[in-house]
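FIELD: query
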Amino acid sequence: MTNRIKFNYLLIVILVLAAGCMQTKVISLKDPSYNNRTFKRILVIADFQKIEDMKNLETELVYELTSKGTFAVENHRLLPPIREYSDEERSSMLKKYNFDSYLLINPQGVQTTTVYVPDVEKHKVTTTKDSNSVSRETTRTHIQGGEMVVPTQFNTQIKFVDMMNGNVVWQSDTETNMNKDSRMSSIIVSISRNVANQLQEDGVIK
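FIELD: result
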């Protein structure tokens, strides 16, 4: 394999790993007994260990739901998960906002893949001219190859629950494409936008 072919191969691998915008696929199921009912007041709960991710996902989902005309509130604003709450405290808060449902988001982990990148050696020729002669200097740069583990997909499971009886109305798995440069903030935006759209498409919200 020539150096040029090796370099082109490395370039293709890098482009594949970084290609495409953030995309989230939402695979959903809905209880058919709720086909003629929509929900209007939703408590959004993100069950993430990292506080920043939890707050950002709840906030972003509330924004997306609100933009569709549905009332929604972040759980971390009402019942921040820093202590145990009594049944009376929970009941009082839920009654205050008259929620009819809650949306629970659980992370399911990150999928990865291993790719092999071959060693690459680049040659650069520098030409120097003066009044009497022309000189050329060749410099060589060696790029070490090997195996590279890269993220490919971030997964979550989401349940939409009827607050009146505890029944799961709607459930989905989300699959968000990733690459080595993906930021959690972009993943959260993609999940929130696509989940809100799917809830509307499935007739759970108006």
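FIELD: remark
The chain has five helices and eight strands.
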